[in-house]
Design a protein that fits this description.
- The structure is a single chain.
- The chain is about 35% helix and about 25% strand.
- By secondary structure, it is of the alpha+beta class.
- It folds into two domains: about 1-35; about 40-90, no CATH class.
- A four-stranded antiparallel beta sheet has the order 1-2-3-4, with no helix packed on it. The protein has a two-stranded antiparallel ribbon with strand order 5-6.
- It is rod-shaped.
- The termini are far apart.
Length: about 90
């Protein structure tokens, strides 16, 4: 009888550990996601969108530079952006 109670107690603690481990893993990934950097979208080979800003990597530069000639549409609607064109999610270009 005593061995059965000892085994039941051990089983209880193993189950409790698994539940707590799963809960801490779930809470940890949710909190870590809030600290993740902003995502970016690639609009062309050398153009990316980060938030509402567009950046271009030009030959000769060692860093991404902001795009100065933005089209007169919200950058969040852009799905493609090149040297001579900009295409929005509604198909305008």
């Amino acid at each position: 009888m005593e061995a059965a109670l000892r085994n039941a107690r051990a089983f209880y603690f193993v189950c409790a550990d698994i539940v707590l481990l799963a809960q801490s893993s779930h809470l940890g990934t949710r909190n870590a996601g809030a600290q993740a950097p902003q995502y970016f979208d690639v609009l062309f080979v050398n153009v990316v969108r980060v938030g509402d800003a567009l950046y271009r990597f030009e030959d000769g530069n060692t860093a991404w530079v902001p795009v100065s000639n933005l089209p007169p549409v919200p950058t969040s609607t852009l799905v493609a952006f090149g040297i001579n064109y900009a295409i929005t999610s509604s198909g305008e270009g």
